[in-house]
Amino acid sequence: MESTNDNVRSQMRKGVLEYCILSILSRKEAYASSLLEELKAANMLVVEGTLYPLLIRQKNQGLLSYRWEESPQGPPRKYYVITEKGRGQLAEMDAAWQEMVESIQALRH
Amino acid sequence: MESTNDNVRSQMRKGVLEYCILSILSRKEAYASSLLEELKAANMLVVEGTLYPLLIRQKNQGLLSYRWEESPQGPPRKYYVITEKGRGQLAEMDAAWQEMVESIQALRH
DNA sequence: TTTCAATACCTTGCAACACAAAGTACCAAA
DNA sequence: TTTGGTACTTTGTGTTGCAAGGTATTGAAA
Protein backbone atom coordinates (compact mmCIF):
# COMPACT_ATOMS: atom_id res chain seq x y z
CA MET A 1 0.00 0.00 0.00
CA GLU A 2 1.18 3.50 -0.76
CA SER A 3 -0.13 5.04 2.44
CA THR A 4 1.88 2.79 4.74
CA ASN A 5 4.96 3.78 2.83
CA ASP A 6 4.03 7.43 3.07
CA ASN A 7 3.50 7.19 6.80
CA VAL A 8 6.93 5.68 7.28
CA ARG A 9 8.55 8.50 5.36
CA SER A 10 6.41 11.17 6.94
CA GLN A 11 7.29 9.87 10.37
CA MET A 12 10.99 9.90 9.62
CA ARG A 13 10.91 13.44 8.31
CA LYS A 14 9.86 14.64 11.73
CA GLY A 15 12.74 16.16 13.59
CA VAL A 16 14.84 16.95 10.57
CA LEU A 17 12.64 19.62 9.04
CA GLU A 18 14.24 22.37 11.06
CA TYR A 19 17.60 21.10 9.93
CA CYS A 20 16.53 21.26 6.29
CA ILE A 21 15.16 24.78 6.62
CA LEU A 22 18.33 26.11 8.21
CA SER A 23 20.39 24.29 5.62
CA ILE A 24 18.58 25.87 2.71
CA LEU A 25 18.60 29.31 4.29
CA SER A 26 22.31 29.04 5.03
CA ARG A 27 22.94 29.22 1.30
CA LYS A 28 20.42 31.83 0.29
CA GLU A 29 17.51 33.82 1.55
CA ALA A 30 14.10 32.49 0.65
CA TYR A 31 10.42 33.03 1.28
CA ALA A 32 7.98 30.38 2.40
CA SER A 33 6.59 29.40 -0.99
CA SER A 34 10.03 29.03 -2.49
CA LEU A 35 11.12 26.93 0.48
CA LEU A 36 8.16 24.67 -0.14
CA GLU A 37 9.36 24.09 -3.68
CA GLU A 38 12.95 23.46 -2.67
CA LEU A 39 11.89 20.98 -0.04
CA LYS A 40 9.63 19.25 -2.52
CA ALA A 41 12.49 19.02 -4.98
CA ALA A 42 14.64 17.52 -2.23
CA ASN A 43 11.98 14.88 -1.49
CA MET A 44 11.27 16.48 1.88
CA LEU A 45 7.68 17.40 1.19
CA VAL A 46 6.06 19.75 3.66
CA VAL A 47 2.81 21.64 3.61
CA GLU A 48 2.06 25.25 4.39
CA GLY A 49 0.43 24.49 7.72
CA THR A 50 3.68 22.91 8.85
CA LEU A 51 6.12 25.37 7.38
CA TYR A 52 4.69 28.70 8.48
CA PRO A 53 4.54 27.92 12.20
CA LEU A 54 8.00 26.36 11.96
CA LEU A 55 9.48 29.50 10.44
CA ILE A 56 7.82 31.60 13.10
CA ARG A 57 9.23 29.38 15.82
CA GLN A 58 12.73 29.59 14.40
CA LYS A 59 12.42 33.34 14.11
CA ASN A 60 11.27 33.56 17.74
CA GLN A 61 14.27 31.49 18.77
CA GLY A 62 16.52 33.99 17.05
CA LEU A 63 17.68 31.52 14.42
CA LEU A 64 16.12 33.49 11.59
CA SER A 65 15.19 37.05 10.77
CA TYR A 66 13.23 38.31 7.82
CA ARG A 67 12.55 41.28 5.60
CA TRP A 68 9.71 42.15 3.26
CA GLU A 69 10.33 42.44 -0.43
CA GLU A 70 8.07 43.48 -3.29
CA SER A 71 6.99 40.69 -5.58
CA PRO A 72 6.90 41.08 -9.38
CA GLN A 73 3.38 39.78 -9.12
CA GLY A 74 1.11 39.40 -6.12
CA PRO A 75 1.56 40.33 -2.48
CA PRO A 76 4.96 41.10 -0.94
CA ARG A 77 7.20 38.24 0.09
CA LYS A 78 8.67 37.61 3.51
CA TYR A 79 12.28 36.68 2.88
CA TYR A 80 13.84 34.73 5.72
CA VAL A 81 17.51 35.16 6.54
CA ILE A 82 19.59 32.92 8.75
CA THR A 83 21.23 34.64 11.74
CA GLU A 84 24.57 33.97 13.38
CA LYS A 85 22.74 32.04 16.06
CA GLY A 86 21.03 30.08 13.32
CA ARG A 87 24.38 29.16 11.82
CA GLY A 88 25.53 27.97 15.21
CA GLN A 89 22.45 25.82 15.52
CA LEU A 90 23.02 24.48 12.03
CA ALA A 91 26.53 23.42 12.97
CA GLU A 92 25.15 21.55 15.96
CA MET A 93 22.57 19.93 13.77
CA ASP A 94 25.23 18.82 11.32
CA ALA A 95 27.02 17.08 14.16
CA ALA A 96 23.84 15.60 15.57
CA TRP A 97 22.77 14.33 12.17
CA GLN A 98 26.13 12.78 11.46
CA GLU A 99 26.09 11.01 14.80
CA MET A 100 22.61 9.69 14.24
CA VAL A 101 23.47 8.36 10.80
CA GLU A 102 26.41 6.53 12.34
CA SER A 103 24.36 5.22 15.24
CA ILE A 104 21.77 3.77 12.93
CA GLN A 105 24.37 2.35 10.61
CA ALA A 106 25.81 0.56 13.62
CA LEU A 107 22.39 -0.71 14.63
CA ARG A 108 21.79 -2.09 11.15
CA HIS A 109 25.23 -3.76 11.09
CA MET B 1 24.61 25.16 26.47
CA GLU B 2 24.14 21.46 26.92
CA SER B 3 20.39 21.60 26.78
CA THR B 4 20.25 23.15 23.33
CA ASN B 5 22.45 20.38 22.07
CA ASP B 6 20.26 17.79 23.74
CA ASN B 7 17.12 19.26 22.25
CA VAL B 8 18.57 19.07 18.78
CA ARG B 9 19.41 15.41 19.21
CA SER B 10 16.18 14.58 20.93
CA GLN B 11 14.24 16.23 18.15
CA MET B 12 16.10 14.30 15.49
CA ARG B 13 15.58 10.98 17.24
CA LYS B 14 11.85 11.41 16.77
CA GLY B 15 10.61 9.39 13.88
CA VAL B 16 13.47 6.90 13.83
CA LEU B 17 12.77 5.26 17.15
CA GLU B 18 10.37 2.78 15.63
CA TYR B 19 13.00 1.96 13.07
CA CYS B 20 15.57 1.28 15.78
CA ILE B 21 13.22 -0.94 17.77
CA LEU B 22 12.35 -3.07 14.77
CA SER B 23 15.99 -3.25 13.83
CA ILE B 24 17.06 -4.58 17.21
CA LEU B 25 14.15 -7.00 17.41
CA SER B 26 14.90 -8.29 13.92
CA ARG B 27 18.07 -9.83 15.31
CA LYS B 28 16.84 -11.13 18.64
CA GLU B 29 13.92 -11.05 20.97
CA ALA B 30 14.15 -8.59 23.82
CA TYR B 31 12.19 -7.13 26.67
CA ALA B 32 11.74 -3.46 27.35
CA SER B 33 14.50 -2.96 29.89
CA SER B 34 17.04 -4.71 27.71
CA LEU B 35 15.93 -2.61 24.73
CA LEU B 36 16.51 0.49 26.81
CA GLU B 37 20.08 -0.61 27.41
CA GLU B 38 20.73 -1.46 23.79
CA LEU B 39 19.38 1.88 22.64
CA LYS B 40 21.45 3.65 25.23
CA ALA B 41 24.55 1.81 24.01
CA ALA B 42 23.68 2.89 20.48
CA ASN B 43 23.41 6.53 21.55
CA MET B 44 19.67 6.50 20.92
CA LEU B 45 18.65 7.15 24.49
CA VAL B 46 14.99 6.68 25.29
CA VAL B 47 13.11 6.60 28.53
CA GLU B 48 10.52 4.14 29.78
CA GLY B 49 7.61 6.49 29.25
CA THR B 50 8.50 6.64 25.57
CA LEU B 51 9.37 3.02 24.98
CA TYR B 52 6.45 1.20 26.55
CA PRO B 53 3.69 2.98 24.64
CA LEU B 54 5.74 2.62 21.46
CA LEU B 55 6.02 -1.13 21.88
CA ILE B 56 2.31 -1.37 22.55
CA ARG B 57 1.57 0.62 19.40
CA GLN B 58 3.78 -1.58 17.29
CA LYS B 59 2.18 -4.67 18.78
CA ASN B 60 -1.29 -3.29 18.01
CA GLN B 61 -0.18 -2.67 14.43
CA GLY B 62 0.81 -6.31 14.15
CA LEU B 63 4.51 -5.52 13.78
CA LEU B 64 5.40 -7.24 17.03
CA SER B 65 4.09 -10.00 19.23
CA TYR B 66 5.28 -10.98 22.67
CA ARG B 67 5.45 -13.78 25.18
CA TRP B 68 6.00 -13.83 28.92
CA GLU B 69 9.08 -15.41 30.32
CA GLU B 70 10.17 -16.04 33.89
CA SER B 71 12.99 -13.87 35.12
CA PRO B 72 15.84 -15.27 37.20
CA GLN B 73 15.06 -12.43 39.55
CA GLY B 74 12.07 -10.17 39.81
CA PRO B 75 8.81 -10.14 37.89
CA PRO B 76 8.34 -11.96 34.58
CA ARG B 77 9.60 -10.31 31.42
CA LYS B 78 7.61 -9.48 28.33
CA TYR B 79 9.76 -10.60 25.43
CA TYR B 80 8.88 -8.91 22.18
CA VAL B 81 9.22 -10.74 18.89
CA ILE B 82 9.14 -9.20 15.43
CA THR B 83 6.44 -10.55 13.10
CA GLU B 84 6.52 -11.08 9.37
CA LYS B 85 4.60 -7.86 8.97
CA GLY B 86 7.18 -6.20 11.17
CA ARG B 87 9.95 -7.43 8.90
CA GLY B 88 8.11 -6.01 5.94
CA GLN B 89 7.83 -2.68 7.69
CA LEU B 90 11.51 -2.80 8.58
CA ALA B 91 12.39 -3.27 4.92
CA GLU B 92 10.32 -0.22 4.04
CA MET B 93 12.02 1.73 6.78
CA ASP B 94 15.41 0.74 5.48
CA ALA B 95 14.47 2.18 2.11
CA ALA B 96 12.93 5.30 3.62
CA TRP B 97 15.94 5.90 5.83
CA GLN B 98 18.36 5.46 2.96
CA GLU B 99 16.39 7.93 0.85
CA MET B 100 16.30 10.47 3.62
CA VAL B 101 20.03 10.22 4.23
CA GLU B 102 20.59 10.86 0.55
CA SER B 103 18.11 13.73 0.45
CA ILE B 104 19.82 15.47 3.32
CA GLN B 105 23.23 14.80 1.92
CA ALA B 106 22.07 16.51 -1.27
CA LEU B 107 20.70 19.44 0.70
CA ARG B 108 24.00 19.83 2.51
CA HIS B 109 25.96 19.65 -0.80
C1' DT C 1 -15.52 48.57 -12.65
C1' DT C 2 -16.17 44.38 -11.18
C1' DT C 3 -14.67 39.81 -11.17
C1' DC C 4 -11.37 36.36 -11.42
C1' DA C 5 -7.12 33.76 -10.89
C1' DA C 6 -2.67 33.58 -9.10
C1' DT C 7 0.28 34.38 -5.40
C1' DA C 8 1.41 34.62 -0.63
C1' DC C 9 0.90 34.68 4.24
C1' DC C 10 -1.55 33.08 8.51
C1' DT C 11 -4.67 30.56 11.84
C1' DT C 12 -7.45 26.93 13.91
C1' DG C 13 -8.50 22.40 15.49
C1' DC C 14 -7.00 17.83 15.83
C1' DA C 15 -4.08 13.79 16.48
C1' DA C 16 0.32 11.72 17.41
C1' DC C 17 4.13 11.46 20.13
C1' DA C 18 8.22 12.03 23.51
C1' DC C 19 8.90 12.65 28.09
C1' DA C 20 8.79 13.30 33.22
C1' DA C 21 6.82 11.55 37.02
C1' DA C 22 4.21 8.63 39.62
C1' DG C 23 2.05 4.17 40.19
C1' DT C 24 1.60 -1.04 40.40
C1' DA C 25 3.41 -5.58 40.90
C1' DC C 26 6.63 -9.36 41.55
C1' DC C 27 10.46 -11.54 43.91
C1' DA C 28 14.19 -12.68 47.14
C1' DA C 29 17.15 -11.69 50.80
C1' DA C 30 17.83 -9.53 55.21
C1' DT D 1 7.82 -8.04 57.09
C1' DT D 2 10.44 -4.83 55.31
C1' DT D 3 13.63 -3.51 51.97
C1' DG D 4 15.67 -3.16 47.44
C1' DG D 5 15.91 -4.49 42.83
C1' DT D 6 13.49 -5.47 38.65
C1' DA D 7 9.87 -4.75 35.39
C1' DC D 8 5.69 -3.18 33.40
C1' DT D 9 2.07 0.64 33.05
C1' DT D 10 -0.37 5.03 33.22
C1' DT D 11 -1.18 10.02 33.48
C1' DG D 12 -0.47 14.71 32.33
C1' DT D 13 1.98 18.13 29.64
C1' DG D 14 4.06 20.36 25.82
C1' DT D 15 5.48 20.16 21.05
C1' DT D 16 4.72 19.34 16.50
C1' DG D 17 2.83 17.97 11.75
C1' DC D 18 -1.06 18.46 9.11
C1' DA D 19 -5.68 19.25 6.87
C1' DA D 20 -8.61 22.74 6.07
C1' DG D 21 -10.03 27.17 5.89
C1' DG D 22 -9.14 32.23 6.02
C1' DT D 23 -7.11 36.92 4.68
C1' DA D 24 -4.78 40.01 1.63
C1' DT D 25 -2.41 41.78 -2.64
C1' DT D 26 -1.99 42.18 -7.51
C1' DG D 27 -2.89 42.30 -12.50
C1' DA D 28 -5.70 40.98 -16.21
C1' DA D 29 -10.00 39.63 -18.20
C1' DA D 30 -14.93 40.30 -18.61
SSE blueprint and pairings:
The structure is a homodimer of 109-residue chains.
Chain A: H1 2-13, H2 17-27, E1 30-31, H3 32-41, H4 48-60, E2 64-69, E3 77-82, H5 84-107
Antiparallel strand pairs in A: 1-3, 2-3
Helix pairs in contact in A: 2-5
The structure holds a DNA duplex (30 and 30 nucleotides).
Count of alpha/pi helices of chain A:
5
Write the CATH fold name of chain A: Arc Repressor Mutant, subunit A
Give the termini separation of chain A.
28 Å
Strand order of the largest sheet of chain A: 1-3-2
Proportion of residues in β-strands of chain A: 5-15%
Radius of gyration of chain A: 16 Å
Mean pLDDT of chain A: 92
Query: Which CATH architecture of chain A would you pick?
Result: Orthogonal Bundle
The tally of structural domains of chain A comes to 1
Order of helices and strands of chain A: HHEHHEEH
By secondary-structure content and strand pairing, the structural class of chain A works out as alpha+beta
Largest interface comes to:
A-B, 32 and 32 residues
Structure, described:
The structure is a homodimer of 109-residue chains. Chain A has 109 residues and is of the alpha+beta class. Chain A has a single domain, classed as Arc Repressor Mutant, subunit A. The first copy, chain A, is built from 5 helices and 3 strands. In chain A, strands 1-3-2 form a 3-stranded antiparallel sheet. The A-B interface holds A 4-5, 8-9, 11-16, 18-20, 23-24, 42-44, 89, 92-94, 96-97, 99-101, 103-104, 106-108 and B 4-5, 8-9, 11-16, 18-20, 23-24, 42-44, 89, 92-94, 96-97, 99-101, 103-104, 106-108. The structure holds a DNA duplex (30 and 30 nucleotides).
